[in-house]
């Protein structure tokens, strides 16, 4: 396994409930400077491998913790869209924000065409495949990829709570059909080695050179997110992933989910089916966004999916791994969708 950068994992003290997390950097000033300089070099190499100089990178700043067995989160500051040199030049600012506000820094894996773009349908360039494997060591992740027959990985990041892998492609994929194929392929790819369930093209991940402050409110020490390996010359054609491409094409040939009107299915052409798929994913990804009232947010998402014509059994697997659907299971979903169906019925013109 190639190893290019790796922080020494230090053991800081435990944070108080409302205190900033302890820094993962040694408190000795000279050593701290050296570690932060190394962290910045990691970030610079990583971004230079994934992004061109003029491309925009979406950055989000979110605190996350567990309270009474449930996942909680808050947006620490508004998202920003920066070019890679701007991101690198503000590295210290973002590290200090993380340490002060318990903020996790996330970046959009695919370049964003314009500032404000954050949805799947706005992604125009895909140049890598990626994955997030939770609660494993780097060695375990390599073992999983090998056992699943995955091609050699290009970039490996130790996230502080798991491992991220990136497989660079030999060219940028820009056509709508190519992007749709990759988006459909990712769930099959992840399932082969136990990757995270979130696979949309607008996915955000932790960049190396930053700090993992997950659950800092409960005293979990901050941990560095580090660049373990970076091999820019390890690139693949999509043919290297033909096993998962075949599954994706088979799925694309299945009849698409169609809006239903007056009891009969409306014909959906391939282009419209892709647009519908994008709308569905844009709605579902809201499950990962912070909300002061998750029950109300979950209800609104189910209503939106019903309005697109999806059935109960089509909606359940889309939401099962997110928000309160994950923690409370099918009974919560059944109550939520029953209430949503009543609202849709009452809101329909026929309901008077």
Task: Describe the protein in words.
It is a single chain. By secondary structure, this protein is an alpha+beta fold. It folds into two domains: 29-239, Alpha-Beta Plaits; 255-347, no CATH class. The protein has helices at residues 29-50, 84-89, 91-101, 138-147, 176-191, 242-253, 270-284, 294-307, 312-319, 323-347; strands at residues 57-67, 70-82, 104-108, 126-134, 155-158, 162-173, 204-205, 210-212, 223-230, 235-236, 260-261, 264-265. The strands form three sheets. Strands 4, 5, 6, 8, 9 and 10 form a six-stranded mixed beta sheet that branches. Strands 2-1-3-7 form a four-stranded antiparallel beta sheet, sandwiched between helices. The chain has a two-stranded antiparallel ribbon with strand order 11-12. A hairpin with a 2-residue loop joins strand 11 (260-261) and strand 12 (264-265). Helix 5 crosses helix 6 and helix 8 (294-307) crosses helix 10. The longest helix has 25 residues, at 323-347. It starts with 28 loop residues before the first helix and ends in a 5-residue tail after the last helix.
């Amino acid at each position: 396994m190639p190893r290019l950068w790796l922080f020494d994992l230090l053991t800081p003290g435990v944070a108080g409930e409302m205190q900033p997390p302890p820094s993962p950097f040694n408190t000795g000033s000279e050593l701290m400077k050296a570690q932060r300089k190394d962290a910045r070099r990691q970030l610079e190499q990583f971004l230079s491998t994934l992004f061109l100089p003029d491309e925009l990178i979406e950055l989000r700043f979110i605190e996350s913790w567990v309270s009474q067995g449930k996942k909680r989160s808050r947006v620490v500051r508004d998202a920003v869209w920066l070019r890679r040199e701007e991101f690198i030049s503000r590295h210290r600012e973002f590290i200090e924000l993380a340490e002060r506000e318990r903020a996790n820094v996330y970046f959009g894996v695919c370049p964003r065409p314009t500032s404000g773009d954050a949805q799947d349908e706005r992604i125009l360039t895909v140049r890598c495949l990626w994955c997030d494997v939770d609660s494993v060591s780097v060695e375990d992740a390599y073992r999983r990829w090998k056992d699943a027959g995955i091609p050699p990985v290009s970039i490996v990041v130790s996230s502080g709570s798991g491992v991220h892998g990136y497989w660079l492609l030999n060219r940028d994929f820009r056509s709508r059909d190519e992007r749709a194929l990759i988006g459909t392929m990712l769930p099959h790819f992840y399932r082969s080695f136990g990757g995270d369930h979130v696979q949309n093209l607008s996915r955000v991940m932790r960049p190396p050179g930053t700090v993992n402050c997950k659950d800092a409110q409960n005293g979990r020490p901050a941990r560095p997110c580090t660049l373990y390996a970076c091999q820019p010359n390890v690139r693949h054609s999509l043919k290297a992933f033909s096993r998962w491409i075949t599954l994706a094409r088979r799925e694309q040939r299945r009849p698409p989910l169609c809006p239903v009107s007056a009891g009969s299915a409306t014909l959906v052409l391939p282009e419209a089916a892709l647009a519908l798929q994008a709308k569905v994913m844009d709605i579902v990804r809201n499950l990962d966004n912070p909300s002061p009232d998750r029950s109300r947010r979950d209800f609104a998402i189910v209503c939106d999916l019903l309005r697109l014509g999806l059935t109960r059994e089509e909606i359940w697997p889309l939401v099962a791994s997110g928000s309160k659907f994950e923690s409370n299971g099918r009974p919560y979903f059944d109550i939520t969708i029953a209430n949503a169906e009543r609202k849709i019925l009452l809101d329909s013109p026929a309901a008077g």
